[in-house]
Amino acid sequence: MSSNPLSVLKRLRDKVAKNLSQTFKSMADPNFRNYSLGMFVSSCGTWMQSVALSWLVYRLTGSAAALGLVTFANSLPLLLLTFVGGMAADKFDKRKILFTTNSIAMVQALILTVMVATGTATIGWVIALSVVLGIVTAFEVPTRQSLVPLLIQDEKDTHNAIGLSSATFHVSRMIGPALAGLAIARFGELVCFALNTVSFLAALFAIWSVKPRDPMAKAKEGESGSASPAGGANKDKQGSAAGFWAVFRSPGVMTLIILAAFFSTFGMQYSVLMPVIVDKILHGSSEQFGFLSAAGGLGSLMGALLIASFGSRTACVGVWVWLRSCFLRRCCCLPSRKSSPCPWWQS
After folding, report:
1. Domains in the chain, please, with CATH?
2. What is the DSSP string of 300-328?
3. pTM for the whole thing?
4. What's the CA gap between 170 and 304, in Å, rounded?
5. How do residues 81-100 score in pLDDT, each as one tens digit?
6. What is the DSSP secondary structure assignment for residue 225, as one 8-state letter?
7. What is the rounded radius of gyration, in angstroms, for the C-alpha atoms of the chain?
8. Beta-strand (E) ranges in the chain?
9. Is the pLDDT at 196 greater than 70, yes or no?
10. Residue 23: exposed, middle, or buried by beta-carbon count in 10 A (0-12, 13-18, 19+)?
């Protein structure tokens, strides 16, 4: 088989064209479509607030340490409570959890809007509200992710639905920051916080309107109902504990957790210092800050669409490895470019 990357790209293009009709098939389900659109609008608002909040903190303090402190205040509840949020999503009504968490997040955005409008926003209040949002997110994220597979009737489309859900999130990750940068430059941070507050109405309507299927319906039909409530509670506790320790006993899952932790710690934190980079190094404004923040979602969007299109882990990993190798080869060619030009696809 030819290793020419042009032929690889041609085969990839043909396969994408062949699978294009399958890429968005989950959107044919009204349940999933309405939910995705509502959460997309809300996610755009959330990204707008995230960019505006970073710019606000840097404008108030001019300190990179303050940016890190606000991010830490938001991330600490995620570290401590996300597992609890996942257990809550397994035990309680997912729609009620999402409706409650999004309602609290809307109130948090409203408080920020009022404080910025009245000029009473301080770094202390921003940190406190970031902690509140972190607690809400710790329960909202695992619940939202576990609800997606229950919104489609055909379980065969689960991979497609998950991929599209991730794609809509990353599209909002591109649109939200870009809009925020433009809005801050022309109107200030207030508009971003206000739009985020209003965007939660779309999420609340979507959550209220969907009707997820019950994954335990068949199991419930086969149960005799003889188990006591105390026995059920003990079983839930044992199941939660077993699920927690199963993570450490599974090499595959543990490897993914370590990779995610390493990447989140050393790879994603550039966004924390982005206002400083834009101001001190690039000598830019909020517009540049917004577009640079939006650029981070492009690669994630491509990966999510690949998952939705192929539904094959092997195909997606193969494309990623090939693109990664091309990038590394390109980097290796840069020092000797003048003396020995090196095509980007050749070693």
Report:
1. 29-211+253-311 (1.20.1250.20)
2. HHHHHHHHHHH--HHHHHHHHHHHHHHHH
3. 0.72
4. 8
5. 988 998 898 888 899 999 99
6. S
7. 23
8. none
9. yes
10. buried
